[in-house]
Amino acid sequence: IATVQQTARDRLNKNQEEPTILLECDATLLDAVQKHLKVYKIRRKVGITPCPDLSLWTILPFEQSSKTGSALEVNEKKVVVCTRDPRTDAMGWRLVLSKIDNPLDIVPESHLGEIQDYHRYRYAIGIAEGVKDLPSGEAIPLESNLVYMNGISFTKGCYIGQELTARTHYTGVIRKRLMPVQLGNPLPPNSVPEKAQIVSESGKSAGRLRSYMGDVGLAMIRLAFANEPLQLRTAGDARVQLKASVPDWWPSEENK
């Protein structure tokens, strides 16, 4: 049985006179995002629809070097979107394709990795992504480094939380940041309590673990303790050595 269906690619390219935005979001928040956007649509003739016929891929560089900013060769005939990851060059490219297309046919000399490799990679360089790393209603934009990832504009119109965000930015008073952490030894999945406490060698509270995979993860760290040896409290009050680091892609004044 054959059916005729307008694909998302067709909808995006149908009429260039009508602005079209393709929004990427955490899949677990799809319904919530649609509901939120429809609240602010009011009476405008704006269509908000999911694109289940599309798939999203990340193309990571084999190694971190000056070459990460070079152009990417792709088969453009089958590409819906191919763009540099706007967060940092270290995250390579974002590629959107029809689900029926194989990315190996689109990007020459590439190979498929595992999703776990992707998460380990971004944890190691300090990139937060999704509701687990950035809990809704809890994560503060500046503490989560969104200004470093082109995630905040200080010149656009109003948005919820704008005054607090702008005031914190211009005063420069940020006492905690989400940072990449290296654990002393790999930890099995779900072996650490949610928001496990991180302490200094003297026992002072230094932060909370946000997410991890093996021996790398992301943690909200108090900057006063960022350069000290730290310990993660696990189940039964056992402790694992932990070290926070400043990512290379942060602005130079933060890399001191």
UniProtKB/TrEMBL annotation:
Instruction: Supply the alphabetized keyword list.
Output: Mitochondrion, Transit peptide
Oxidoreductase keyword on record? no
The UniProt record lists the CAF17 C-terminal domain at 175-251
GO annotation terms (biological process): iron-sulfur cluster assembly
Q: Record's Gene Ontology CC terms?
A: mitochondrial matrix
Q: Note the Pfam families from the entry.
A: Beta-barrel_CAF17_C (PF25455)
Q: Where in the cell is it found?
A: Mitochondrion
Question: What is the name attached to this protein's record?
Answer: CAF17 C-terminal domain-containing protein
Q: Which organism is it from?
A: Scyliorhinus torazame (Cloudy catshark)
